[in-house]
User: Fold Cold-shock regulated carbon starvation protein A from Shewanella benthica KT99.
Amino acid sequence: MLIFIICITLLVLAYKFYSPFVERQAGIDKNVKTPQARFADGVDYVEVHPVKAFLIQFLNIAGVGPIFGPILGAIYGPIALVWIVLGNILGGAVHDYFSGVLSIKEDGKSLPEIAGRYFNVYAKGVMLIFTAMLLFFVGVVFIMSPAGLLSNLDYFKGTILANNTFWVLVILAYYFLATMLPIDKIITKLYPIFGLLMIVMTVSIGVALLISAPQLPEVGDIFAYFDHSHYNNDLLEPNPDGLPVWPLLFVTITCGAISGFHSTQAPIIARCLTNEKYVRPVYYGAMMCEGIVACVWALAGIAAFPGGYMELKSILDLGGPGMVVNQVATTYLGVAGGIMAIIAVAIFPITSGDTAFRSLRLTIIDAFNIPQNVRNRLLVAVPILVIAYFMTKIDFTLIWRYFAFSNMLLSTSVLWLATKYLFDRGAFHWIVSLPAIGGTSVTVSYIMTAGIGLGLPQPLSQPVGIAVGAISLIALILAHQKRKPVKSEAETES
Assistant:
């Protein structure tokens, strides 16, 4: 129990004490007009109250990511909690914060446009490819997973509602509306409610686990995965030494720790904030809350089942993380938990999928400078959703592998973009450049050995990743030493 409480406390303390330091480096101007005031169009640039903005951002980035990923990562034991907290504080929250800062300071633009501004047209092109690819994969994944769940509910057996294609078309129809309509027609009305529901569900599950869970971890269990003391070797099949923490744990648990997808959602809310001072509570705050959600569900995987990790693995093998959510929610919260479980694995993914396609529309419109009108929105949105429908016919696991890869690559790219922003300002860039180096190491390690990458032997992963990280650090130190001062410390902190 103590390790979980320490993790939550660290996340809260980081927001209280570390995030103001991060904010001072960003050059926030509370007096400047935001993009919402300068470009109000009634569609995307619409004023949203900061509390609503926080709840929308929280739901946009969360979905099922901080639920499913930590459940899968719980196989690694309490070290998963350590990664969530360190990844969130040192990487994810800073990544999300600067995604918001960069977008609100660049007229609410999407990532590729910002990359072109701070680097060059080639960086813009590369960022456009990976941003579009990630948004598209997220959208497709979050059509397939809720459609699969809804069509398999016992309540619908023997009816048209048991047809997967029916739910795919229903979800696509909703995505079309959410992508096309002004943000204040659906998103600002429904998403704060669902965001509150996720908070209530998380708190309820967390309290119930702390009171009743049979396998609560102790501080001494943190490194149990490495000496195999928290399970028997059957859990490790087909690899008797277990799946390597580096880099697979970092790829398995992204949402809650650090996720490139979050940066693609930044422009949606950056176009709606009425003051730059709200960037920290909305973006950093939403990521801190997602870290808490991830810790709760990692704890559920670690502690909720009497049979321990072997029971967790058997449920995962039988029905994936969605079944784990259902078992935990119904066991610890009863009927109300069952209802929450259905909402969690069916509704929450949809709330990320629709904003993924909306962000993709914004990204394409920004990249090609397409005027915002109904006709052009239709010309962009309809082909995207038609292609998405046919993509749902492809193997889900294949799409998920590419999603995981592009997610990791994009988060690292955004950290390097934030490094350039702070470097040019003469500010303390190490808060983003060091996480960028870590992300580069993990990304290279994964690409070296993954099936969708080079497919090289696993033992090469760690040394190559560390070598690339070391080279990146040396290059950054040399660049830092050559940097000419741009602003005084007083100007930086103002």
Observations:
- The domain at 1-6+33-225+241-396 is CATH 1.20.1740.10 (Amino acid/polyamine transporter I).
- The chain has one domain: 1-6+33-225+241-396.
